[in-house]
Amino acid sequence: MNANEIYNEIKELNLNYLMLAQQLIRADRETAQYRLGVSKDIAEIIEHLTPGQVLKMAGTNMVLCRFRFDDSMLLGLLAGHGRDRGTSHTHATILASAKPVESIS
Amino acid sequence: MRNKSVVTEAREIQLAAELIRLGARLQMLEAETNVSRERLLKLYKEVKGVSPPKGMLPFSTDWFLTWQPNVHASLFMSFHRFMIENTELRGLDAVVKAYRLYLEHVELNGLECVLSLTRAWTLVRFFDANMLKVTQCKCCTGHFVTHTYDLTNDYSCGLCHVPARAGKTKRQASATAVEAVAAVA
To answer: Fewer CB near the last or first residue (10 Å), C or N of chain A?
Structure first.
């Protein structure tokens, strides 16, 4: 993968992410906040981005969304092979919803 | 209490109908809306097609402490806490949003829907009345529902230390038996 390809892939990912986030927030803001793991302020900012702004934001060589599950316990539960998938996912959800959301400083 | 405004009443009836669809019992509707009892009865029959169940609501906090209900109650409370901490939703709205997330989780993972909307609502009321609280598990740091006056210094949750026979109900046993028979045939 050369630099140009990487840039295009990341741009595509960013664009997808921002558009999905906008759609979710417009449909149901509180549930979207839960799904995206963002605070009220960020949800508001994303909701009011214009298509032009979305394009501009997406066009960088950095990924805009970040890895949320920075906890080995949680990762193990989500990816591991516990004795029952439903139960370990429930456990993971209980842990994940207590994580602090991304917020703007 | 009689409603003065027709628009408010329409909104309340809409809300009541939505709650009925989610599985609310009559007592909950009476507590959360200002619609009269007769209208609620009629509405219930219209939406569900059957008369509402009679009798009192379950009033024991112990139900939430047995293994499977505790897991589901803790799951619901984690959604509810998220709503209270991160959004402006309060009261019934927060309960309904959290309950929808709970339903979605149950459906996605093929679990049994243990917690009804009325139970979830009662659970939140128990929290408000300080009869139940959440305690942090010392293994996984998750928050789980416990009695307020339980000794919880060294608490570990039912998911970190699963009891030997937890979740192995008669219903599940018969379901796996049916599957096994189907696999053999």
So the answer is: C
**Separation CA B32–CA B73 (nearest Å):** 21
Contacts of A85 in chain B (CB under 8 A): 109
Q: 3-class SS at B147? A: strand
Q: Is the pTM of this model over 0.80?
A: yes
Identify whether the C-beta of residue B89 lies closer than 8 Å to the C-beta of residue A30: yes
Nearest chain A residue (CA) to B75? A94
A95 contacts B142? CB cut-off 8 A: yes
Tokens of B174: 């018969």
For A71-101, the pLDDT digits (tens) are: 777 777 777 766 677 788 888 889 888 888 8
SS3 A53: helix
The percent of chain B in helix, strand and coil, each rounded to the nearest 5, is: 55, 5, 40
Interface touch B143/A85, C-beta < 8 Å: no
Q: Which long-range contacts (CB under 8 A, 24 or more apart) does B122-130 make?
A: B122/B57, B122/B58, B122/B59, B123/B64, B123/B73, B123/B76, B123/B77, B124/B80, B124/B95, B126/B61, B126/B64, B127/B77
ipTM confidence: 0.86
Say whether B101 and A90 touch across the interface (CB within 8 A): no
A-B contacts at Cβ under 8 angstroms: 66
